[in-house]
Amino acid sequence: LALSSSASLAGKSEWKKGDPVPYSALTDCFEEIDKTTKRTLISSLLTTFLLKVALNPGKDGGDLLRVVYLCINRLCPDYMGIELGIGESLIIKAVAQCTGRSVQQIKSELRTVGDLGLVAQQSRGKQKTLFKTAPLTVPFVFKCLTDIAKATGNASQAKKVGIIQKLLTPCTGSETKFIVRSLEGKLRIGLAEKTLVTALAHAIVLKEVGSKKLPEGKLAEKLAKGAEAVKAVYSELPNYDLIVPALLKGGIGGLKEACKLTPGVPLKPMLAKPTKAIGEVLDRFEGKEFTCEYKYDGERAQIHMLEDGQIVVFSRNSENMSAKYPDLVESIPRCVSENVKTFVIDAEAVAYDIKEQKLLPFQQLTTRKRKDVRTEDITVRVHIFAFDLLYLNGESLLHKQLVERRQLLQESFHPVQGEFGFAKSSDGSSSEQIAEFLDESIKDGCEGLMVKRLTSDDSTYEPSRRSINWLKLKKDYLAGVGDSCDLVVVGGYYGKGKRTNTYGAFLLACYDADAEQFQTACKIGTGFSDQMLVELYNLLSPLELASGKRSDVQADMSKPPDVWFEPKVVFEVLTADLTLSPIYMAAQGLVDERGISLRFPRFIKIRDDKDADDATTSEQIAEFYEAQALASKGNRGGGGND
Ligand code: ATP
């Protein structure tokens, strides 16, 4: 890591020992980061700043944690459900009130500037300040943002506007812009979370090294090892509330002991790579041992049993779903063997017809209420199919081979008719055996198969990784791209004919996590029933942006959609194939100067278990495109179910 001279710019603001970190010190760092797209420079700018904060973490020692959260626009771990991201109109109202301008003026400027943060900053710049207020500090900003996010009830709108005013009044320079962007839920400076994790680790290493003179090679090694250690711990325990204080207390060396997988803290699930043919699966696993499991068509459920016996169910997105599944919370203890005290299992919750004893399609599951479900009102029953055991009786099993985890899973739980079972599996590895098992899975109402490495170090559980050691083989997609895409709705086109009261088509985008940008991938207007379009109108119209296109959406502006949306809703879509496009921007620069677009996209469903930044990434689109190009050259089996 080169702590370049420009990096030291990020540390130009000073504050006295024990004083709270000035908010302007953080926004100066954001400004520097915003000027570059170079990942290494962003990382070193942030490292320099975090090191300063780590050495002087404020009055109560908590400012490093607050700074970490402010860098990624969060206030607490995801699963606690306290989120920033306030509607544009409320922020406009607050900006108008505290800059003495009209809502109309702000809106019209917004249409030309396209960034409410900048408009707010410019509006503040035009104001004469009559008296000086105390400068903003990191703890004050963090507290105000938390209060806003927690405000509920009838009077909450007025309360939020009041707090925003308290925040905006003392702002100087770019502070206004970043407060507004934080309120909107995105900083848009290209600071990805993985860069933050690396910078945090580097800052702690540099703090430990202090003024010691280490040979350059040795320092580089320490930094790399530190980053690996923090990343590994974060993937098991994605909770900065625990990790940051542990780093400040015991450094990198003490982290592993202090922060371990803990029931109650959901870990990011392991993900699979798509494949297009059985031949491709066999190629990829090249004679190594693997197992095929049914790929159930339901909702992922990570189920935890805490030390006090409490059962908590988390979604794919680490959302606490226990209130949606009181029936599971109640039934799971019946399926647990006596010697089991604590566990974390990875499973699929599938809608189930108890009378006919058969699986029901995913759509049935979506008819269940999401909140405050009472067991006696439940009409759609859910069956759990467990496929992995990640933690048992105080021990993390992530590093064990799948074959061992599976055995422990089967020893620790017992199937209960209509409620709980293990994912059906077959270890047969010939092409014919896989084809037969695939057909059987479809007949039983599944989407296809998950094919997983069974033994060796390649079969450990890799949290948050889309791993080549898990392959998905979906029957429907064998002839197409290999998988569906999950794309964010960024724009809408008004309908024609009898659809004039709704949108008739949508502009969809994939996500480039490194640049924190949405890149358009296609326009979609097929696959929607009229009723669906009405529902989509109700869902999307509150997300219409008065400002027009957001600056983090990359799109061809020669034919803009009628309206732009806040990127929030995710559609799962199927495509005939992918093609290079002069109009769409997905994966631009990854395989070609042009972007990639989906041809003849068809709507499948809304993915309400995915956030906008869980959408299919630019890299995935590029991978799909390259796999398709390879298949069409005939290098791979492609297409068929061979
Ligand atoms: P991705 O991010 O990979 O697109 P996704 O949520 O869109 O994930 P799929 O592409 O359908 O899901 O494939 C993976 C999902 O399949 C898992 O997240 C899980 O919910 C589901 N699943 C069903 N059966 C299994 C199984 N036996 N093993 C692992 N996952 C399974």
From TrEMBL:
Designated name of the protein: Uncharacterized protein
Source organism per UniProt: Naganishia onofrii
Q: Which domain of life is it from?
A: Eukaryota
